[in-house]
Each structure stands twice: as C-alpha cells, then as structure tokens.
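re: ur question from yesterday

yeah so i grabbed the chain u mentioned. its 110 aa long if i counted rite. heres the sequnce exactly as i have it in my notes:
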Amino acid sequence: MVKKGSPGNAQKSIGDVAPKLAELTDEVLFGDVWERPQLSKRDRSLITCAALVATGKTEQMSFHFPRAIENGVTQEELVELITHLAFYVGWPNAMSAVGRARELLEKKQP
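ran it thru and got these structure tokens back, copy pasting raw so excuse formatting
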C-alpha cells in the first residue's frame, strides 16, 4: 500500500505523462482494491494473470507474472493457468503468453 503523500510506482513511472492515471493506479487499484481482504493477493494475481492471458495483454505480463510469483503463485501454476486457458480463450493468446512467461521466468533464474 502506498503511504499518503509518497509517490507510488505508477507515479514514478507515468506520473509525468498521466498524473491522474498514476494516482488512480497507486491509490485505488493498488492502495485499495489489491488490499481488500475478501481475496488473497495470490488469488488476485491468478485472476489478473488469467485476464491478461485471455485478453492478450502480453506487455502487462512483464509486471504481473513476476508479481504473481512474489504473491505465492508458482511458475508451474502460471504455466498450467496458460495451458488451461488455451482451450477457453484461444490458442494464439496462450502461445503468446507462454512465450512471454518463458522470457520473464528465465530472467528470474540465477
């Protein structure tokens, strides 16, 4: 959660271009929605990653796949999520996602 008055990640990365979007991202999305107790951060990460695969948003995976790992999702679970979704959201989306996952997960290897 971002402390009031201190710049969050979005403020640092896009605040100069889109200050309101940065504010909403830091304060509402990550400061409120991600902190709600009804779902664990792990579950929120699984849902978010599934949505990104389903919609083909590979650019956003570079943030959310590593975050999912930090939130307790295993690499095997991410790959299984992609495999499972291939039959529901389309083979091209799954193939794009697994390629992105490979890039991101290989970076995490020592």
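noticed a couple things. Helices lie at 9-14, 19-30, 41-55, 58-70, 75-89, 91-108. also The chain has two domains: 1-36, 40-108.
anyway ttyl
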